[in-house]
Specification:
By secondary structure, the protein is of the alpha/beta class. Helix content is about 30%, strand content about 25%. It has twelve helices and 21 strands. It has helices at about 1-15, 20-30, 45-55, 65-90, 100-110, 230-240, 260-275, 325-330, 375, 380-385, 415-425, 435-445, and strands spanning about 120-125, 150-155, 155-160, 175-180, 195-200, 210-215, 220-225, 245-250, 255, 285-290, 300-310, 315-320, 345-350, 355-360, 365-370, 390-395, 430-435, 460-470, 470-480, 490, 500. Strands 3-4-14-15-16-17-18-19-21 form a nine-stranded mixed sheet, covered by helices on one side. Strand 6 and strand 7 form a beta hairpin. Helix 1 packs across helix 4 and helix 6 (about 230-240) runs parallel beside helix 7 (about 260-275). The longest helix is centred in the first third of the chain and has 22 residues, at about 65-90. It is globular.
Length: about 500
């Protein structure tokens, strides 16, 4: 039954109809419905079916949708949302009203949402288990706008051209995947609460740490990681020693072939901490940008992994869009000796990702990752930031420094502007992480004789935003150029935050 309604909503999502006009009228009708004979959560499936039968016929694609049919479908979705409310807020002792609710939890634990058939979309909890929902702007997807306890996620979301054109007309879609807490291992430690300790590190700090390499057939570029990963023991070691719950590393910080060594490092440091202090470290997850080298004529991968405190991979998000280098980028990063305005683009030598993940991390919250260029596209990010109740959006980049440049909500550097957009849409926390590599390369170019540009004195390695009832707050983490020693910033989340925009 729930699967059937999900199919109906997916059908509505595919239609080019005046949903924005229909939605307010549907909400008025639903709000004026007479009281039911019993609360939704006490209904048996057969009783629920009685209320949704009218909507089932509207799944027929031959039926021309109109305001009344739209309202009927949303009324049924609203009823099902009410029925699932006890799963979000169980009674004392964790008791659920009916065996059918227990079955819904079983389906959720399999990563399928509350319904049994994920091929037509899934219904998932409005917020991650154990995380208190916060006040957010109204959700923008038609069905989600009337849901209070759940959220509907379609099986596919629109995605822009992976080479930079944000054109939904291209027809590209990416699959949506969901990982519930129950698919992760039980963690006996107390949750860090609403104010975790967060560590960020640029990893690549010097042009000798990694090299941007270009290929001539065809015109592509990639990144060869060399020495930067030698800093990982110091970075993760400090994070463990200083009680960090989360470690965020930027885009392409780790070569894929070195992931096994990173996992072993995390496990070794956790074991050492336990043997020394007779307790597990506070560390929950390491979120690291990775890159894989490609054989000649093939594509590599640009992705982010989430590793738990024992180094076990729990999630992987591939970059959906390529960041292609224009002529001025190629000159700035030292790929060409002179600025050539006629130079063609160099295309990032990666295969575009085909999935987007929503991951519920126990004790931390709901997280999605949009890697660098993925943040510059409206799709599929807009659906995620507006509808699925993200507690964390991680945006790892490898770019020149991005710093707040004016006391305004507009006109900021591109990544800060997009991070603000996500926070204003209701994402609780946005974390942008950056390496120092490209700023260092630009400084080398700007230091050449005859250059009219001064080298950067500082580089931003992280930009963090939080939205709450008091408004937007931010924290910018910057380092002097060139950086000395291994850079790691570790702080309790709320420390050093200031109102945004700054005065």
């Amino acid at each position: 039954m729930l699967a059937t309604l999900c199919a109906a909503v997916h059908w509505w999502n595919l239609q080019k109809r005046p949903v924005a006009t229909w939605l307010p009228a549907a909400e008025v009708v639903i709000a004026s419905d007479p009281p039911r004979s019993k609360p939704a959560d006490q209904m048996q499936p057969a009783e629920l079916l009685h209320y949704v039968e009218a909507a089932l016929a509207d799944c027929d694609r031959r039926v021309i949708p109109d305001q009344n049919r739209f309202t009927t479908v949303l009324r049924a979705m609203n009823l099902l949302d009410d029925w699932h409310e006890p799963l979000m807020h169980p009674a004392p002792g964790g008791l659920l009203p009916t065996p059918a609710h227990e079955d819904a939890l079983v389906q959720l634990g399999r990563g399928r949402g509350y319904n049994s058939d994920p091929s037509i979309g899934i219904m998932i909890p409005l917020s991650c288990e154990g995380m208190a929902p916060i006040a957010r702007p109204p959700r923008t997807s038609a069905p989600n706008a009337v849901l209070q306890s759940t959220t509907y996620v379609p099986p596919f979301l629109a995605a822009g051209d992976p080479d930079g054109e944000d054109l939904a007309s291209l027809g590209r879609t990416v699959a949506v995947r969901y990982r519930p807490p129950s698919l992760l291992r039980i963690d006996p430690r107390p949750a860090p609460g609403s104010n975790p300790v967060v560590a960020v590190a640029p990893v690549h700090q010097d042009p000798a740490d990694a090299a941007v390499i270009s290929f001539t057939d065809p015109d592509r570029y990639g990144l060869a990681v060399m020495a930067g990963v030698d800093r990982l023991p110091a970075i993760i070691g400090r994070a463990v020693d200083e009680g960090a719950h989360m470690v965020f590393l930027p885009e392409m910080a780790v070569e894929e072939s070195q992931l096994g060594a990173l996992a072993d490092l995390i496990q070794s440091l956790s074991t050492r901490h336990f043997r020394t202090y007779a307790r597990l470290p506070a560390l929950r997850y390491v979120v690291a940008g990775c890159v894989s080298r490609a054989d000649p004529g093939d594509f590599g991968r640009n992705f982010v992994v989430v590793l738990d405190h024992e180094g076990v991979e729990v999630a992987r998000q591939h970059k959906l869009s390529r960041w292609n280098l224009k002529a001025h980028h190629q000159f700035s990063y030292g790929l060409t000796p002179v600025a050539d305005p006629d130079a063609g683009e160099l295309f990032e030598n990666i295969a575009a990702g085909e999935e987007v993940w929503i991951v519920d991390l126990p004790g931390i919250g709901r997280m999605s990752t949009l890697i660098c260029a993925d943040m510059s596209h409206n799709d599929p990010g807009d659906f995620l930031i507006n509808n699925v109740g993200l507690d964390w959006l991680h945006a790892p980049i490898m770019d020149r420094t991005n710093v707040v440049i004016r006391a305004s909500l507009s006109g900021q550097p591109w990544m800060i502007d997009r991070a603000l957009r996500a926070a204003q849409a209701g994402v609780r926390r946005v974390v942008v992480t950056n390496s120092v590599l490209f700023t260092a390369l630009i400084n080398e170019t700007n230091s050449r004789p005859g250059s009219s540009f001064a080298p950067y004195a500082r580089c931003s390695i992280a930009f963090m935003l939080e939205t709450d009832t008091a408004g937007l707050k931010y924290r910018d983490v910057a380092v002097d150029m060139p950086p000395a020693g291994t850079i790691v910033d570790i702080a309790r989340w709320s420390d050093g935050f200031k109102p945004f925009p700054p005065p």
